[in-house]
Amino acid sequence: MSKRELYFIFGSPPCWSVMLALEVKGLNYTPVRLDNSKSEQKAPKFLTVNPRGEVPVLVNGNGSGDGATFCETLSILTYLDAAYPEPSLFGDTPTETARVWQSISECNSNLTNQVGDISRPLFRNKGGEFTDQIALAAEKMRAELALIESKLMTKEYLAGDRLSAADLIIYPIIMQLHRAAASDRDD
């Protein structure tokens, strides 16, 4: 029997991406939730799992006894796709693979930091202290979201005709923005 553990922090888009990939692949895993407010990801016990003290981390006891540990979202998704090829997350042809990686690269370059620059102050109830940062990030983010929306006007998925790693990376980031906006309205 396979025993997988996924170390995660609630609400983390990178962790959510890995959880989505595990579900898409139909793979069982044991979730190990770390409490960010208690800095459990920096505790000595967890640092033996990942010395950088970051999540997500997948510990994959695949029955062969290798107990491989993978850190970083994209390396975990790449591992899962190579080890469990169906359904493919990174495409079956060179063109599909390039489109998936292009979408991921565009997200990492043009969306991730902007969403973080908006959401972090809002989650910490410090939106008023960071209005300039939020306004600048929002301007850049709106342009990128418009490009994403234009892609999705003509097709259901970002990088092709089916769900891919690109969708699994971008969706949680957009949902983080949605959560941040909702938390700002709760004040």
Layout of helices and strands, plus pairs?
Layout: E1 3-9, H1 13-25, E2 30-34, H2 44-47, E3 57-61, E4 68-71, H3 73-83, H4 94-110, H5 112-123, H6 131-154, H7 165-185
Parallel strand pairs: 1-2
Antiparallel strand pairs: 1-3, 3-4
Helix pairs in contact: 1-3, 1-7, 4-7, 5-6, 5-7
Q: Which descriptors would you attach to this protein?
A:
4-stranded mixed beta sheet; 11% strand; alpha+beta; 7 helices; single chain
Account of the protein in words:
- The protein is α+β, with helices and mostly antiparallel strands.
- Helix content is 55%, strand content 11%.
- The protein is built from seven helices and four strands.
- It has helices spanning 13-25, 44-47, 73-83, 94-110, 112-123, 131-154, 165-185; strands spanning 3-9, 30-34, 57-61, 68-71.
- Strands 2-1-3-4 form a four-stranded mixed beta sheet, covered by helices on one side.
- α4 (94-110) packs parallel to α7 (165-185), α5 crosses α6 (131-154) and α5 packs parallel to α7 (165-185).
- The longest helix is centred in the C-terminal third of the chain and has 24 residues, at 131-154.
- It is flat and about 45 Å long.
- It starts with a strand and ends with a helix.
- The mean pLDDT is 92.
